[in-house]
Amino acid sequence: MNLRELDYICAVARLRHFGKAAIACNVSQPTLSSQILKLEAELGVTIFERTRGAVLVTEEGKSILEAAKRVRNAAADIHTLAKGFKDPFSGELTLGVIPTIGPSLLPMFSGLLLTQYPNLKLTYIEDTTDRLNEQLLSGEMDAAILATMPVDPSLIQTPLYDEKFHIALPKDHRLCAQQEVSLKELEDVSLLLLTEGHCLRDQALAVCSVSQHDQAIRATSLDTLLGLVSGGLGTTLIPTLSIHKGCISDLGIEIRTISDKLASRRVNLTYRKTYVQPQLLDVVIQLILSQLPDDIRRV
What we know:
With 299 residues, this protein is an alpha/beta fold.
């Protein structure tokens, strides 16, 4: 057994496809398949159930894959530690971010981070909360900026800031006549939501007891929802930081503050408890906090 074989089975488990896993591991499919068969023979356990339509992980395979992830994480930690002894602010940092935060927050601090630490190689991955959590747990990602609580005991979070929700309205909407809007007044509006899997969708439904929302809309970005609001198709919630992007006024929509204190969310930096370069994450945290606008409450 070797680390490369563990890479292969983790890739197949993640992608549920031998061909795609081979591409991800930069090997031919016959090589990947033969190495996995060799590992299964060595262990005396079938890790994958191979069917015509899908690749399934067996019950025994699930336990083996959990152990494989721990071994791969430990091996990655050894490399990270060795690099950190020379320069704790060099090496690689893979940072995840959800789509309703990334476009607004990353420009505020990423350039400064690269300028101050030129030997640091940064990789940013924008994805849904569930997928980012999966990559954190598998060791493919070092930390992620999320607006939800950790999903696993092996993950820990550092609170960054709280941001209020606002309501984006078409310019001729009746609520535009008010400076603030209460959640009660939003109960009968048509609310546009992101597709399932985006935490802002769940947060919007939790905050607003709306009687109607457009089930036909399957938007994957806040920008798309704002464009639909501009076209008069409905309203949507928008976090404070997204208002600072500077393109809101160009859309011809109106933004109103929601007066209720419940209409907010907390944004955190989430990472594994065992991450071996916490001082690097401290730098990221301090840079983020130093660049936030005054109307964002730092935690």
